[in-house]
UniProtKB/TrEMBL annotation:
Example of a GO biological process term: proteasome-mediated ubiquitin-dependent protein catabolic process
Name used for this protein in its record: DNA-binding beta-propeller fold protein YncE
Single GO molecular function: DNA binding
Keywords noted in UniProt: DNA-binding, Signal
Lineage: Bacteria, Pseudomonadati, Rhodothermota, Rhodothermia, Rhodothermales
Signal peptide range: 1-24
């Protein structure tokens, strides 16, 4: 699996954190390019995460406006998903995105304590509450469709999400300093823990093509590498 959270070096895009939260319209390339500064794609209130899908669409999580913007490869804005709220399809500080195969979008909806799954056309599909909720037993970790407008929320703070080629979903929880793995058959477990000083202040994760899990830990000033079997390779 490719690391989808790393923006290709060949894509010269400058993201500006603006006070008004205005978004550029039309083709960004029509605005002109400064080789030193890059091309201004759009302005965001608080751009938090980027991802590119196999069709070269760019996804931007704007935590300030609680939306996800989708741009075509030529810079044209395709859609703006979400908006502030707790209901399905809305966000509270989205912090990470994984467009997987370009057909389904996973969004770490941080302060709602969940990962949402949407189509790339913006249709809400289901939510994965991370941590404890009032609607399920401890240890149960399943996607819920939230039909009828019901909120689906967990009690932790997911700030990273990635899906591997076998369908497993990895979620980085900043509150408990853990990485959770949700398998394609609905089983879940904490695969990396903050206990014992292993994770101090994790801020990001990515999956490599060699089935390794990479975790950036600001507290340890290090990037940790884990095998899927969870043996630490380097730090």
């Amino acid at each position: 699996m490719r690391c989808r959270h790393l923006l290709c070096a060949g894509l010269a895009v400058l993201l500006l954190w603006g006070g008004g939260g205005a978004w550029a319209t039309g083709s960004a390339w029509a605005q002109g390019t400064d080789r030193a500064a890059g091309t201004v794609l759009a302005q965001f209130e608080k751009a938090r995460a980027l991802a590119v899908d196999p069709r070269e669409r760019l996804y931007v999580a704007d935590a300030g406006r609680s939306v996800v913007g989708i741009f075509e490869a030529d810079g044209t804005r395709r859609a703006v998903l979400g908006g502030a709220g707790t209901r399905p399809g809305t966000f509270d500080t989205p912090s990470a995105i994984d467009p997987t195969n370009g057909q389904v979008l996973l969004v770490a909806d941080t302060y709602n304590g969940r990962v949402q799954r949407l189509s790339t056309e913006g249709q809400y599909l289901e939510s994965l509450p991370v941590g404890q909720t009032g609607r399920r037993a401890a240890g149960e970790w399943t996607f819920q469709d939230g039909q009828g407008g019901a909120s689906v929320q967990g009690d932790v703070r997911p700030i990273g999400v990635a899906r591997d080629d076998e369908g497993a979903v990895f979620v980085l929880d900043s509150r408990n300093r853990q990485v959770w793995k949700w398998s394609d058959v609905g089983q879940a477990r904490a695969v990396v823990s903050g206990r014992g000083g292993r994770l101090q202040d994790p801020v990001a994760l990515a999956l490599g093509p060699d089935r390794r899990l990479y975790v950036a830990d600001a507290g340890r000033e290090a990037v940790l590498i884990y095998e899927c079997e969870l043996r630490v390779e380097s730090k």
